[in-house]
Amino acid sequence: MHELREAGAKAARIMADHLEGVAERPVWRPVPDGELAWLTGQELPETGRALDDLLEDAREHVLPYPMGNGHPRFFGWVNSPPNPAGVLVEPLAAALNPSCAGGDHAGPHLERTVVRWLAGLVGFPHPPGGGLLTSGASMATVICLATARQQAALADGWDAREEGLSGRPPLVMYVTEEGHSCLHKAAQLLGLGARNVRLVPVDGAYRMDVRALRAMIAEDLDAGRRPFCVAGSAGTVNSGAVDPLDGIADVAASYGLWFHVDGAYGALGVLDGGAAPHYAGMEQADSLALDPHKWLGVPVGCGCALLRDPAAARAAFSLVPSYLVDENAGDLGWFAEYGPEQTRPFRALKTWATLSYLGRSGVRRLVEHTTGLARTLGEMIEAAPDFELLAPVTTSITAFRHTPRAGALPRELDELNRALPVAVQARGNAFLTGTRLGGRDALRTCILHPGTTEQDLVVLLEEIRLAAKAL
Ligand SMILES: Cc1ncc(COP(=O)(O)O)c(C=O)c1O
Q1: Tens digits of per-residue pLDDT, 286-345?
Q2: Ligand 1, from 182, 184, 268: best to mutate by most atoms within 8 Å of Cβ?
Q3: How far is the CA of 235 from the centre of ligand 1 (A)?
Q4: CA Rg, the chain, in Å?
Q5: Secondary structure (3-state) at 42
Q6: Rounded to the nearest whole angstrom, what is the distance from the C-alpha of residue 258 to the centroid of ligand 1?
């Protein structure tokens, strides 16, 4: 243990040095060929190496090449910097190294608390056992949709787990084209068939058109199909749009559909006073996916599936062989009965630490700060003649494009905006990513860093202009 004690103290210093210096280094830089060879080509050593050597290697070959999301001018995809409290306790979770499948030890008990806190933060109902931590929202979505699938089958008098889906009317799910790809992946994985995921049109603000949803459900019913689930978004990845959740809840209730909300990125946006009205109806969902490893900054990976009726998830997943029977498990049983994972990491510790460190007011401040900056960026863009705002700013995502030349053809603007993200990234001073929105190539920023300032937004727009000139 002496070696671990010494090396552990050094690792703590390296970690703090790294985090302290993030803002002074390039946001991102490509991995040079020599380092790539080290990262990808090394051989497994025949004999074990000293802990201190491993730290030196990590310092030299790993830490200098981050993804960039620790930096206050990282605006790409939906990736946050790590919360220091989460970083602090990660090694403790590893030192304990439990499986949080279930049982009477700290991990599963703390997970119950953390899930309850998360539900409470976003105002989602929390019956005992009403959720579990997952690797991310993709896995949370699989859990929620598998639960919905089994509930639909049971309601119709059959059992999808026992019989499979063949010979049954197609189960149909509804999302908008702005819905995250994880919804499609989950539907495909669950054997629903990509063709049975209907794309509901959106309005001018990229929110689900509820009248169209109603019409599509009626059409599917007429054709003998079985509508079973509608998935709304509380914060789309393209523009941060929040679907009209209360309207969707009404439709779901009137047709007996499962109502799922993808709040992976945006559910916490409900804590911002300005954004809160957009979230009306989220609390009516049957299931909600929410990622602590996004806005909260819990170190990757930690997602969460929240369920209005936990027994429904148990009905979809519980399979307890004799070697796993636990007479003392209590009414809720094991977490492993509510999802596909058996051995489950101790995700609760870093989530508990992050939430405790921030406190409720700290979470709210973080959400308000980042959402406020996204609105400011929207205003800066609207005031600038060479930029165009492409969607209202609801959460901390701003969708826009660069329009430097008056009279440019749509195709030219598309080409420019498609090329810009990589060009900006290569300059190393800011990082943003692109997308297609409303049939146009767009730029988008997602602000999640508590240290991002208005000045960083000024730098970002200037970086886009400079990158465009050099193209
Ligand atoms: C809106 C939204 N939904 C779902 C996901 C998938 O979450 P995860 O990457 O944690 O699996 C993401 C990821 O960025 C997202 O932004």
Answers
A1: 999 999 999 999 999 999 999 999 999 999 999 999 999 999 999 999 999 999 999 999
A2: 182
A3: 10
A4: 24
A5: coil
A6: 20
Residue 450: both structure tokens together: 């508590």
> What is the 138 CA–ligand 1 centroid distance (Å)?
6
Task: For CA atoms 185, 186, 192, 195, give the dihedral sign.
Answer: negative
**Residue 278 identity (one-letter amino acid):** H
- The model's pLDDT over 131-185, given as tens digits with 9 standing for 90+, comes to 999 999 999 999 999 999 999 999 999 999 999 999 999 999 999 999 999 999 9
Residue 182 tokens, joined: 């994880």
Please report, in angstroms and rounded to a whole number, the separation of the first and last CA atoms in the chain: 55
Pairing status of strand 131-134 against strand 226-233: unpaired
Dihedral angle of Cα 39, 42, 45, 51, to the nearest 10 degrees:
-20
pTM for this model (two decimals): 0.97
Q: Which tokens is 5 given?
A: 């004690």
Closest CA to 198 of 170, 222, 236, 224: 170
State the amino acid at position 334 in one-letter form.
W
Measured CA to CA, the distance from residue 179 to residue 233 in angstroms comes to: 6
Do the bridges between strand 440-446 and strand 258-262 make them parallel or antiparallel, or are there none, so unpaired?
A: unpaired
Q: Is the dihedral of CA 161, 165, 167, 171 positive or negative?
A: positive
